[in-house]
Structures are given as C-alpha cells and as structure tokens.
Design brief:
two-stranded parallel ribbon, 16 helices, 8 strands
Length: about 375
C-alpha cells in the first residue's frame, strides 16, 4: 500500500528497466556510470524509506524510473526536474516526431506537430533532434538500448538536412572531421564542468569551427550547440553584446534551416530566448545609470530595440499558441512583458531586420 494506486503500481512494473544492459559496461562506458548511480540511489531509497524489498527489486524500480522519466522543463527548455507517466512512457521515439510533450500548470500535455491520421502512431523525440544521426543513435543505444530506424536515420538526415553536406565531405576527410568534432565536444564538456571558465573554453571551441566556416555549416552539431552554450555563458557573465550576436546568428541563419516553420517548438524557444536578451539589453540601455559600455558596443548598428521587441513578441506569441498552446509558460511570460508597458518603436521590421543581419555578421563568427 502507499500513495500509488495498485493499478498505477502494476503499470509502473510493466515498464522496461534494462537492468542487464545498464550493468554491461562493454556496451557503453556511460552505462556503467549510470548503473553506479542507480546502486547509490537504491541504497538511499532503502535507508530512508525503510522498505524491506531486496536490493535487486529496488534497483530495478529505480532503473525503471530513470529510463522512463520525462524531463520537466521551463518555457526555455531548461531542465528543472523529472516525472514518470506510465501512459506517456508508452510513446515511441522518432527523430522526425509528430508530437511534442510539455509541462504546464502541473500537467503533462502531448501536442501534435502535424496532422496525424486516425489510428496513427504518436511519436516524440527522446534526444535532441539537432544532433547528427551518429550522436542520436549513440545516445539512444546508451540509454534505451535500440537502434532508431526512422526515415531520418535511414537517410542520415538531421532535421531534414543531410548529415554530411557535399560542401563538407568534399573538402575535409572523415578522420579530420571526426577529430574536429570530438575536440569540440571535449571542450564543451570541459566548459560544463567549469562554469567560471566557460566563456574562455567555449570561445576556444568556437575557434576550431571558425577556421572551417567556409565549408562547415553553421547549423551542424556540435558547432550549433557550442554556440548555444557560449551564448548562455555570456549571459551569465553579463556580456550582452556577445550574447546578442550569437542569439541573432541562431535566429537568422541556423533555426530557419533546421526548422522551416517558425512555430516549431525548438525554434520558438530560441526566438523566445532572443526576445529575453533584447529586453535585458533595452533595460540596460534605459535604466538611470545606463550601461555605457554596452551602448558603445551596439552604437554602430542603430538597432531600434522597441520595434524589434514588438515584432519578436508577436512572433513568439503566434508560435507559442500553435506549438505549445495558449496557456503555455511562454504565453504567460509574454503577458507579463505586456504589463511592463514598453513604449514600442516606430521603425519598420524590414529596416530593423537589415540592421540585425549586419550585427550578426559583424559581432560574432
């Protein structure tokens, strides 16, 4: 007996635990590390709950929770927790999914990304769809123990784009490309472990790809994700001009390639992130003791921030309503921005878009 109804408990016990796979470090070294975490958590569960079940039973239960849990995230996809839904856990994976899940006001909601015929399978993406086929397959095998056979993996596509564009494969050897990307990922992991030095470390990672920018696509993983991490690191240090440059690069040149529809949730979230950077910069430039250094860094671009903020706010609202629903966390945040009473500018969007492209091209690589 307990807080979980008997039917819910039985449903939980039917979920996959993959105990043997997690114990088998010959499959992936990360599995053995994960199993060590499961053993430690199982010991803690036993010690603090007072259950009399055997270690094997408790370990299998913890494994089920870790394998089948859904990430609880903020409107910006920042992880804040996890939960287990025995119904949602039945959703299968596709790298080209027809659904997305979200949490809002204490509920888990599954929304369709396209028209699904009656009786059609509902799928979500277990991993970052922007990762290359190799990276997606590696992560899926490491945690869920299957090889994806979706149409994107079969054709080696990432968000509909070829994993290895001709411009890249014809100019750099497979070995050199692998070395380049492995070093980029290593530096990315190093930055994650040392937040205080993240800007310096990620800048070095960016430089690796900048040297190949004539042939290496901006949207390809890991350059794209390194840029995202560097933007976040710049924000944490208050480097708003650099953060703006990277956010603009994503908004103008990366997301339109990966997600042609502006309402696709991953693209909407990045646009929402750009909006928040714009709002913070406007605050820095208009507060009583304005940020003179930031004003100097942005002066040459003559951006009308109120006009851009108005356009981005409208764009995010439309995208959020379609991709997330009218009561999503993003929609609620937009309502708060509206209440701030920003005096929106009078410039036109096309004029400002030209300025934004110039800023993105000159501020960062």
């Amino acid at each position: 007996s307990g807080s979980i109804p008997d039917t819910g408990w039985q449903e939980l016990l039917t979920l996959e635990a993959h105990v043997d796979g997690l114990k088998n470090e010959t499959i992936y070294a990360s599995n053995n590390i994960m199993w060590q975490d499961i053993e430690l958590m199982s010991q803690a569960v036993t010690a603090f709950s007072g259950v009399s079940e055997s270690p094997d039973v408790v370990q299998a239960l913890v494994a089920r929770i870790m394998i089948n849990s859904m990430t609880i995230a903020t409107a910006a996809f920042d992880t804040i927790g996890s939960c287990v839904s025995t119904t949602a856990a039945l959703l299968n994976h596709s790298c080209n999914p027809n659904c997305i899940y979200q949490f809002s006001e204490g509920s888990l909601t599954v929304r369709s990304l396209q028209t699904i015929p009656e009786g059609g399978e509902l799928t979500i993406c277990y991993v970052d769809p922007r990762s290359t086929t190799v990276e997606r397959q590696k992560e899926l095998q490491a945690k869920w123990f299957f090889n994806c056979t979706c149409n994107y993996c079969a054709k080696r596509l990432t968000c509909g784009q070829p994993d290895l564009p001709p411009s890249l494969s014809s100019r750099i050897s497979a070995v050199s490309l692998s070395q380049l990307e492995n070093e980029g990922r290593r530096l990315q992991d190093e930055a994650s472990a040392a937040p205080a030095d993240a800007v310096e470390i990620l800048s070095r990672a960016m430089a690796l790809f900048t040297r190949h920018k004539e042939i290496y696509p901006l949207w390809r993983y890991p350059w794209m994700s390194i840029r995202r991490d560097l933007k976040d690191a710049q924000i944490s240090q208050g480097n708003w001009a650099s953060a703006l440059g990277h956010a603009l690069k994503t908004y103008l040149y990366i997301d339109p390639v990966l997600f042609p529809e502006a309402w696709i949730p991953h693209r909407a979230v990045e646009t929402y992130g750009l909006l928040k950077v714009m709002l913070e910069i406007l605050h820095e430039l208009t507060k009583p003791q304005r940020n003179e250094q930031l004003l100097h860094e942005l002066w040459e671009y003559k951006i009308d921030f109120p006009t851009v903020i108005r356009h981005l706010s409208d764009e995010v609202e439309r995208a959020s309503n379609k991709g997330f629903g009218p009561r999503s966390p993003i929609a609620r945040d937009l309502e708060l921005y509206e209440k701030e009473g920003i005096d929106f500018g009078k410039s036109d969007w096309q004029t400002e878009l030209t300025k934004l492209r110039r800023a993105a091209d000159r501020m960062v690589d």
